[in-house]
Write a structure and sequence with these properties.
single chain; mainly alpha; 7 helices; about 90% helix; rod-shaped; transmembrane helix; transmembrane
Length: about 180
């Protein structure tokens, strides 16, 4: 079996192309044919293609052109779905990362708001409890002072001989 480079030399064209030269072909078609031929020649001269064709896989595909065509069509057809899947995976990763960052930011913001509300509530409760305790302290101290004043008056009256009822009556008349 001949190597692909040997099958078609640069000056030699495939039989189908040779037959079409006899008939009159439009110039655009000839330009297209020339471009295609130059593209094939460039591919055959590419060092990577030459290495591939010398490998066992390249020799096998050269001897089985239908399988080579199936492989080529599969690769071409699989390119778009593979690219779409990879772009979907990358976009999903980016969106997930951004979403996670936003979610964490929102959760931290909500946590800060909850902490702020709890601390404000605690300060209001502490102020209220302090006000109630202060009022209770003032009330209790006034009651105790009044009790002690009354008691000291009783003691003075007991020692001086006046009755506490007559003193209370005089206080009520003066008011």
């Amino acid at each position: 079996m001949r190597a692909p480079a040997e099958r078609l030399s640069q000056t030699e064209q495939p039989p189908a192309m040779r037959e079409s030269e006899g008939t009159s072909m439009p110039s655009e078609m000839q330009q297209l044919q020339n471009r295609f031929t130059s593209l094939l020649n460039n591919l055959k001269r590419n060092s990577k293609i030459v290495e591939l064709m010398k490998s066992p896989l390249g020799q096998y595909l050269d001897s089985h052109p239908f399988l080579a065509l199936v492989l080529l069509v599969f690769i071409v057809m699989a390119t778009l779905p593979t690219a779409l899947f990879l772009s979907f995976a990358v976009i999903s990763f980016v969106v997930t990362s951004v979403g996670f960052i936003l979610l964490e930011g929102c959760l931290l913001f909500i946590g800060v708001l909850v902490l702020l509300c709890v601390l404000c509530s605690l300060s209001i409760i502490a102020f209220s409890v302090t006000a109630i305790l202060s009022a209770f302290y003032v009330l209790t101290s006034n009651v105790v002072n009044q009790y002690q004043i009354q008691r000291s008056r009783r003691m003075k009256q007991d020692t001086s001989g006046k009755s506490p009822t007559s003193e209370q009556q005089t206080e009520q008349k003066s008011d």
